[in-house]
Design the sequence.
């Protein structure tokens, strides 16, 4: 299993006798993204962006420190060299993402797409990804495979966007897919943050399941 998958699992696991954690691997991924793109980041901003309470953010930061992924100063929290390396590995597997308007493959008021590199062959029906999204509290998720310049529904070979050229062009321009990539669209009716975290959760589950099966 890739090192970054193990690290994410460790950070999102309880350290006995701690209480059940209210964050998961998607929150960790989002935290690393925020620190990468913004540099120093405050706990207040993490609360807002991750939709978590101060106690959960305090625990998340503590677990990141235990893995030597971050360090804190008066100006905020920042990635360490180890944290930068972890984010680089994650970014290589999930390099692009975008907001998507409601359409045939994005069923909620808020929809967010992420691209997972080179794992189309590992997708079964897309039900696992949908269930991972629902587990986060989202409406669900749609999984598409980019094959022969088409966004295909798993198992069916159906060209899902053949009649939605605008959405097709948006995904191609924003996600920059290559043949064999996976696109996961998380959807929610009430909160765009939930849709984003749902898509990230489903993407990380896809990678983790593939790594487990490959061992």
Sequence:
């Amino acid at each position: 299993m890739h090192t970054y998958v193990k690290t994410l699992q460790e950070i999102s696991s309880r350290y006995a006798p701690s209480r059940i954690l209210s964050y998961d691997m998607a929150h960790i991924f989002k935290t690393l993204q925020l620190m990468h793109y913004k540099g120093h980041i405050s706990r207040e901003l993490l609360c807002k962006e991750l939709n978590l309470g101060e106690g959960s953010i305090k625990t998340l930061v503590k677990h990141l420190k235990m893995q030597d992924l971050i360090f804190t100063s008066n100006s905020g929290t920042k990635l360490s060299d180890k944290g930068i390396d972890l984010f680089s590995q994650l970014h290589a597997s999930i390099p692009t993402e975008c907001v998507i308007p409601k359409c045939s493959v994005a069923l909620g008021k808020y929809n967010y797409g992420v691209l997972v590199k080179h794992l189309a062959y590992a997708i079964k029906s897309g039900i696992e990804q949908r269930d991972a999204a629902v587990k986060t509290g989202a409406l669900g998720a749609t999984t598409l495979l980019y094959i022969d310049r088409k966004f295909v529904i798993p198992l069916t070979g159906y060209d899902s966007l053949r009649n939605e050229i605008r959405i097709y062009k948006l995904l191609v321009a924003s996600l920059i897919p290559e043949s064999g990539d996976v696109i996961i669209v998380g959807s929610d009716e009430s909160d765009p943050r939930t849709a984003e975290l749902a898509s990230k959760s489903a993407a990380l589950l896809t990678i983790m399941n593939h790594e487990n099966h490959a061992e």
Q: What stands out?
A: The CA atoms of residues 41 and 76 lie 5 Å apart. The domain at 3-91 is CATH 1.10.10.10 (Arc Repressor Mutant, subunit A). Strands lie at 70-73, 76-79, 97-99, 110-116, 140-147, 150-152, 181-188. The chain has a mean pLDDT of 91.
